[in-house]
Design brief:
Number of domains: 1
Largest sheet: 10 strands, antiparallel
Strand content: over 45%
Shape: elongated
CATH class: Mainly Beta
Pfam families: YceI (PF04264)
Helix content: 10-25%
Keywords: Signal
CATH architecture: Beta Barrel
InterPro entries: Lipid/polyisoprenoid-bd_YceI (IPR007372), TTHA0802/YceI-like_sf (IPR036761)
Strand order of the largest sheet: 1-4-5-6-7-8-9-10-2-3
CATH superfamily: Lipid/polyisoprenoid-binding, YceI-like
Protein name: Polyisoprenoid-binding protein YceI
CATH topology: Lipocalin
Number of helices: 2
Structural class: mainly beta
Number of strands: 10
Distance between the termini: 39 Å
Length: 177
């Protein structure tokens, strides 16, 4: 009996979050306001390592690498400005990185606390998660609101938040395998 109890305790302690790969059909986008008009864009090139199981959130881990040089808004003028030193400064900072520090559930809603680095500025952020496991895969929808000036995105004339809004909404739909 003691052996069986000890074995069960060991197995319970060995529980791990499930590791997922991200399907290439996954998306990472953003939206904001410029002169009172909404604009949106996407980062077609990114990778993510997802380790997640609702039954073991303590072991959960999300890590995302973003190739910011892949940014596109569908507007050539915006895209040209975004690559320059006043925004993402592709020459110096071609990548952004997020890594979670904790995944929690409260009232049925999941959140991931973590650190986001853009332009060598690392700031704490919280992501809202909608995780829907299905068989060996599932989907993970993510949303966050970032303060662009916290990361020096849009400096000099572009720091005026009446021209370009202070908040940028980031959304992602990850297809997990």
């Amino acid at each position: 009996m003691r052996l069986a109890l000890a074995l069960l305790l060991c197995l319970a302690g060995a529980a791990q979050a499930k590791d997922y790969t991200v399907d290439p059909s996954s998306t990472l986008g953003f939206s904001g306001n410029y002169q009172g008009e909404k604009f949106s864009g996407k980062f077609p090139r990114f990778s993510a390592k997802i380790s997640l199981d609702k039954a073991d959130l303590a072991a959960a881990k999300l890590e995302v690498d973003i190739d910011v040089t892949s940014i596109t808004t569908g507007n050539a003028d915006y895209d040209s400005e975004l690559k320059g030193s006043k925004f993402f400064d592709f020459a110096k900072f071609p990548k952004a990185h997020f890594v979670s520090t904790a995944v929690k559930e409260s009232g049925g809603a999941l959140t991931a606390d973590g650190n986001l680095t853009i332009r060598d500025k690392t700031r704490p952020v919280q992501l809202k998660l909608d995780f829907k496991p299905a068989g060996d895969g599932g989907t993970l929808d993510v949303q966050a609101t970032l303060k662009r000036l916290d990361f020096d995105v849009g400096t000099d004339d572009y720091a005026d938040t009446s021209t370009i809004g202070a908040d940028v909404t980031v959304t992602s739909h990850l297809v997990l395998k």
